[in-house]
Amino acid sequence: NYHLLVCVMSKQEITTTSSSTLTSVSTEETTTVNITTGPPTSSQPSPTPCLCKDLKQEKSWACGDTWTEDCFIKRCLNGRIELLPVVCPEPVVPKCPRNKLIQINDGCCESFSCDCRCELYGDPHYISFNGLSFDFLKSCTYILVEEQSPRYHLAIAVDNFDCVQGLQGSCVKGVIVNYQNNTAKLSVNHHPVAVQATLNNETVQPPYEKDGLRFETTDYEVNIFFPEIRSYVSLSPSFTLVVNLAMENFVNNTQGQCGVCGGASCIRRGGRIENDTCCEKTAYDWVYRDPLKPECFSAPADVPCDLEPHGELTGPPPTCSPNLQCHLLEHPVFANCSKYVDIRTRKKNCEFDSCSTLNNSCSSLEQTAGECKQAGFCIHWRELTNGSCDVKCSGELIYEECRNKKDDFCFGGIVNSGPTLEKTTSGCFCPPGLVRAGNHSNICVKQCNYCKGPLGMPKFVGETWTDPDDHCMSFICTAYGIQSEPRVYHSNTCPEGNATWNNRDCCSTCESSNQTCEPKLSKMNVTIDDCSAVIELPVCEGRCLSEPWVLAHAYLQVKQDFRCCQEESSDLRVLDVKCLDLTSRKYNYKHVTGCACKACGSH
């Protein structure tokens, strides 16, 4: 190190406020610094990055970034945001397959697009994306839609089951959706009749949203929406399945039993296109490897188009008289819609369906009314079936054929407006003049009165709960306030003076003069994070005898040996709890297998 003396000249400008004088004064000072020889270093500060900041939204953009917001094209330039109004192009009205024209409004501009809509109904009858009707009666699981070149990683399969007595015929049991890294399923249950939804093998209760999938229900049909790709699938208890894809995302890039979105209806694996009379044969090619149906792995494929039909639909069997309600398709209520829907084919399919053991003619009527709904016609047809196609709603809910908005509901003691449905649909709703007691409640009320739980949280009409400090007392919120009642699971008859109230099990137990330390099942509320469950777990309970003994020192003293019933042995088991996000999670816990009387306080 060299010790150097350096003379530094600093210059300071001082501005005076005289009429026209600006004076600069230079001062000199001597400073001693230490300089260490070595490689040169830069002391210049790094340049400040060019950014545009929106303090209100707490966002920032780098210079050169461009984005669209609030109907303006915005650009970050030299630290300032430039605005250019969005210029909307003249909308072009495309020609859509099956006339499924959709008007889209992005908040600034309106445009038109097409939907590719594929439907299955009855035993089962298909309508391809291009509107071609055909029948395929096999009962394996088949691919309806998959992408030819993966872009959104979407695949949809139908799970069929045999439902026609004495015939080779099947109905839709469920639909399997693989989207990105998730598998969702909708399945028709018969007891009670309803559609069940699962996501990655976990049951979910709509409304529910996760990873780009949104489950919705009208308490009749269940929908899975894919907002990012403007598409959805829906399933009703009457075996009516709809696959609806946004044409702008899938045009000429699908294959399967539904055909090509915007293209041919009959396509084989590998992309070979057949004529429109061959869809019943190309449908064999699309077996989905369902582990529950291993017999289908060897099912026929690549069936020639000129092979004679075997078991394909030709009409109702000779021994069957078609249900007269199929004639409803010629009723005046369908007259206006008949210009847009092939009523003749629907009636033929209805007559075949009415010969099944499930009397599945309702499915053809439902599908026809649903397609009329898409064309703008609401058909109140169920009231003409003498109750055979009625939908049973839970509680006070009533069935409505055409709704575009969910029920208003109570929250925080006030009425909240129900959300708009993405499509006009049917389902179970509150009667006029009533609202739901809660967003997901099936109880309808006139006013939004609500009760308060033990910690002050709102409880809606119909909800029940227990007091954390006394779970042997239950409470229910009614339209008139809180009602309470004791919870006694069972009572024992004990000798006089030998009964003890068990506040854990909400019952009386009999004391014994003998030692009775053993594991006993006890019902408990278990809460872990946002997950909870009511379960029975073994705990050590019973009577331990305390033995007196004598301590002899300078004098005699009687001591009591107090012993308590404590854990002796246990093993590790798995506990399944339900969570607020409608999923379930597994946790390990210590399961008591043996108990013994030990000195109190020992472990």
UniProtKB/TrEMBL annotation:
InterPro entries in alphabetical order: Cys_knot_C (IPR006207), Glyco_hormone_CN (IPR006208), Mucin_vWF_Thrombospondin_sf (IPR050780), Ser_inhib-like_sf (IPR036084), VWF/SSPO/ZAN-like_Cys-rich_dom (IPR014853), VWF_type-D (IPR001846)
Keywords on record: Disulfide bond, Glycoprotein, Secreted
Ranges of residues in domain CTCK: 510-601
Location of the region described as Disordered in the Swiss-Prot/TrEMBL record: 26-45
Cellular compartment(s): Secreted
Pfam families: C8, Cys_knot, VWD
Domain VWFD per the UniProt entry, residue ranges: 116-297
Name of the featured protein: VWFD domain-containing protein
